Amino acid sequence: MEATRGVMIYAEQNGGKVHPVSYELLGKGREIADRLGVELSAVLVGHNLDAEAQELIFHGADTVYLFDHEALATFDIMNYRRNIVDLACETMPDIILLGATPIGRSLGPRLAAALNTGLTADCTSLEVDDEGELVQIRPAFSGNILAHIKTNTRPQMATVRYKIMQALPRDCDHQGKVVHREPVLEDPLAVLSRVPCNRQDIRGVSEAEIVVCGGRGLKKPEDLKLLQDLADELGGVVGCSKPLVDEGWMDKDHLVGFSGSTVRPRVYFAVGVSGSSQHLIGMRNAGTIVAINRDPEAMIFEVADYAIVGDLYDLVPRLTSVLRKQRTRDQMEGSVCT
Ligand SMILES: Cc1cc2nc3c(=O)[nH]c(=O)nc-3n(C[C@H](O)[C@H](O)[C@H](O)COP(=O)(O)OP(=O)(O)OC[C@H]3O[C@@H](n4cnc5c(N)ncnc54)[C@H](O)[C@@H]3O)c2cc1C
């Protein structure tokens, strides 16, 4: 096995701001790089990102490779892939980590294919063994076991779930360098095929501070409006369990759990959700969990901070109405925080 040449993370940005998963990757990347005695680098692609590049250094990067061009301002799979692959071929990192976000899940496999290596998707933990190899840990077999995976090709690549790793505290004294790289742009057809980056869609439920998640307790797709009204009142977003995606009521960006996103909002409402192991794995670390279910034995109550037994069709509109009245009262008293 060749000597290790460093750890590289892909620093995702949306709309000119680094996605917080990138700081989490730097936190874990720093730990791994220090253990192996190698450099930690970040690759940042976009436009007008000098300040963000510096932030990456404050969060642990030794080197930031910055590709800056207006044509790269939004995620463009062809040009992003092309430039990162060229960089990886030149710097030859031993480990490359990406966030398991919609962008990371799109970019990661394409990078791995171009670099002729493997990729472990959706890791929930990473370790380094006594031989200095990366052990990539993720749930397998419907979440019933934790698989420990090693890659015998290089670089070792993994996407890592958002809100699992810890970011380092911002350290303004941490020194590093920003290396400006001249981007190579693919032909104009590639630019025309740019994936539209609707910030809201890309961010999905993972980013939300409040998630109102609906399950099969809902009888028909129109009833999702009840959850949307509650989410709107709280400034949150609607998530769902898998049956709602399978039925085509919501798209997969909203799915919480093993097959979808891991979320760690401040408040998580589970409405008509039974609490299967595959669902719990995606939300059990939420700050406060409020569960509404008419079955007092529902498994979701085992992880709930507030367990409300009752009919969602009665409780959700009442809760929304109470919150709306409260907000109106606050506004009239001028005490609402906007
Ligand atoms: C490989 C694999 C991957 C999977 N990945 C995921 C995943 O990522 N995310 C996920 O969610 N699931 C996943 N699943 C599916 C999972 O096993 C469950 O089937 C699913 O989570 C159940 O969804 P649910 O809780 O909405 O539905 P149910 O289990 O049917 O629960 C519905 C709940 O609603 C309650 N209810 C009914 N009517 C009302 C009412 N009027 N008021 C209040 N409560 C009511 C019921 O008491 C019940 O508890 C996966 C399964 C497999 C095999």
Walk me through what this model shows:
The chain is an alpha/beta fold. The chain contains ten helices and 17 strands. The longest helix has 21 residues, at 312-332. It is globular and about 60 Å long. The chain has a seven-stranded parallel sheet, sandwiched between helices. A five-stranded parallel sheet has the order 14-13-15-16-17. The protein has helices at residues 20-36, 50-58, 77-91, 102-114, 188-192, 199-203, 224-234, 242-246, 277-280, 312-332, and strands at 7-11, 13-14, 17-18, 40-46, 63-68, 95-99, 119-123, 125-128, 134-140, 145-149, 156-160, 177-181, 210-214, 237-240, 267-271, 288-293, 306-309. The structure holds flavin-adenine dinucleotide. Residues 142, 215-217, 241-243, 255-260, 272-274, 276, 278-279, 282, 292-295, 298, 311-313 line the site of flavin-adenine dinucleotide (FAD).
What's the quick description here?
The chain is α/β, with parallel strands linked by helices and about 350 residues long. It contains ten helices and 17 strands.
What topology emerges from the helices and strands here?
Blueprint: E1 7-11, E2 13-14, E3 17-18, H1 20-36, E4 40-46, H2 50-58, E5 63-68, H3 77-91, E6 95-99, H4 102-114, E7 119-123, E8 125-128, E9 134-140, E10 145-149, E11 156-160, E12 177-181, H5 188-192, H6 199-203, E13 210-214, H7 224-234, E14 237-240, H8 242-246, E15 267-271, H9 277-280, E16 288-293, E17 306-309, H10 312-332
Parallel strand pairs: 1-4, 1-6, 4-5, 5-12, 6-11, 7-11, 13-14, 13-15, 15-16, 16-17
Antiparallel strand pairs: 2-3, 8-9, 9-10
Bound molecules: flavin-adenine dinucleotide (FAD).
